[in-house]
Amino acid sequence: MDLQQLSIFCTLLSEKSMTEAANRLQITQPTVSRQIKLLEAELGVDLLERETREISPTVQGQLFFDYAQKILNLAKQAQISIQSLPQHLEGQLRVSTINYLGMSLLAPVMWRFLKPSRQFKINLSYAPARSIIEQMKKDAVDMVILPNLQEEYGIELPNYEKHHLFQDSMIFVGSKKDVSLPSQIQVPDMAKKPLVSFPHLLPKFTIKMEQKQKEHNIQPIFEVNNIGTLKKVIESGLYWGFMPAFSIQKQIQFGRLSEIKVDGIEYSMNIEVYFHKQLNNKKLIDILILMLKRQASFLKF
Known about the structure:
alpha/beta
């Protein structure tokens, strides 16, 4: 199926007449009829009631009509957004985020803006959250992706506007190679295998974990601030630990890592994108937000 077929089907149901639909679309009635039959053949269902004189949908046809309208509306929005973006971007965009969000979320989006013909430079850096916040205070960065600054770091920066992207969580994982891996444990059980951690990724979560570890005399034996290294260490089957759920969706989906519920430890955080208010290309911001949300929804399952 294609957008033209969806448009013909929606117009037909709106006009309730082959003649009116054909006139509105400036095509012939046989073309309308043929495209509807092609849609029905592809879907394997009747979309229109054939026993009534008036054009009306079947139950499946009404459901398909609702989806088709949404698809056409999204396609129109995409067209407007893309056509509104200047063909030749100029200037510089200074972007900063933490390692795990950069690798999974930001990098796949940023490269789309890089073309040899464009006089447009992107400066992308990964740094600890506290360092990024210091950059923001100095107005030294245009765009930042971080957990909510107020919730996680207790700070608001009036020079930046915030847009919500998605909610993430910290989950305890181990390697699927370990056939003895439990599906649920108590906090003291974390000491039964070597524990690894991503230090100071989230201040509030770090404080919570340090309290639990102190109560039960548990110490991580390996700390690293690179998400790729941490994934490989856990996948080896010798270690386990907490990781951001968004960073390991593929590993869980493809059976390389397994989530383990830890009684009494649940933690979620809102991931936001911040734009400096002096960044005056509103259309570029809107498209970046749309692309980031699309990338986030693509990776989450």
